[in-house]
Structure to design on (255 residues):
């Protein structure tokens, strides 16, 4: 297994402002107000799958549609504003459903921070999928028309056992300290965060000797996070940067 000195060196190398430009976190970094940052981060997390170059280009199109005013866009959202915007599983109507629900969230219920805080105050841990279920149930209970596959892909049901990768990534952005992340939510400590696990992070983590479980599911997320807590119990998710850096340093081992 990789040593603490080696993995800490990878974090030191890659957790810096230069990381931002090629990562979806660059989208919320355009903004300074708290609600613009969190809305931009949530939007970015919705399509952060597949080819990085492709989804970042798609995000650029989405933020052109918002006229780089995320909060104003959500508060005044109408489906016609999207035109024919779509991305892979997410059809135009799927994005419209999500943004209409976010409009209600910000108009009546405070916003994303208030929703996630309510979930955390009730469940007290991200390791219980009940935390994520409170968040997803807010969206599921407000669907106005039958939702498509894309809606449920972008807002996944935690009871299905998936890794909840994009939601964990969004939480990392909001909770962890800068320079890459924002640290604008303080209702939970960074020690509670879970590693955002996709096929690339899982494969690299196995190459590093950090993950034994074969399935890339929620149990693997908890297992990997527990191993990373042995390196830093207060901030295990900082090692997300180490898996990225290891993949850059060992390109022949990636497919």
């Amino acid at each position: 297994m990789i040593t603490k000195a080696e993995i800490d060196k990878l974090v030191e190398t890659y957790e810096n402002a230069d990381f931002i430009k090629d990562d979806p976190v660059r989208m919320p970094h355009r903004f300074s107000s708290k609600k613009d940052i969190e809305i931009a981060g949530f939007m970015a997390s919705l399509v952060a799958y597949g080819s990085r170059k492709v989804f970042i280009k798609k995000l650029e199109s989405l933020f052109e549609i918002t006229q780089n005013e995320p909060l104003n866009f959500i508060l005044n959202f109408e489906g016609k504003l999207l035109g024919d915007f779509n991305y892979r599983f997410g059809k135009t109507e799927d994005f419209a459903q999500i943004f209409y629900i976010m409009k209600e969230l910000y108009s009546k219920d405070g916003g994303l921070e208030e929703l996630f805080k309510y979930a955390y105050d009730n469940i007290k841990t991200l390791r219980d999928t009940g935390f994520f279920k409170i968040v997803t149930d807010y969206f599921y209970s407000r669907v106005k028309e039958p939702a498509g596959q894309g809606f449920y892909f972008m807002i996944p049901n935690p009871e299905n056992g998936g890794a909840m990768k994009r939601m964990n990534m969004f939480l990392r952005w909001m909770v962890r300290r800068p320079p890459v992340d924002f640290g604008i939510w303080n209702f939970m400590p960074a020690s509670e965060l879970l590693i955002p696990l996709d096929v690339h992070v899982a494969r690299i983590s196995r190459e590093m000797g950090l993950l034994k479980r074969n399935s890339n599911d929620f149990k693997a997320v908890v297992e990997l996070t527990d191993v990373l807590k042995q390196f830093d119990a207060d901030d295990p998710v900082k090692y997300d940067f180490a898996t990225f850096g290891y993949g850059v340093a060992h390109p022949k081992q990636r497919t």
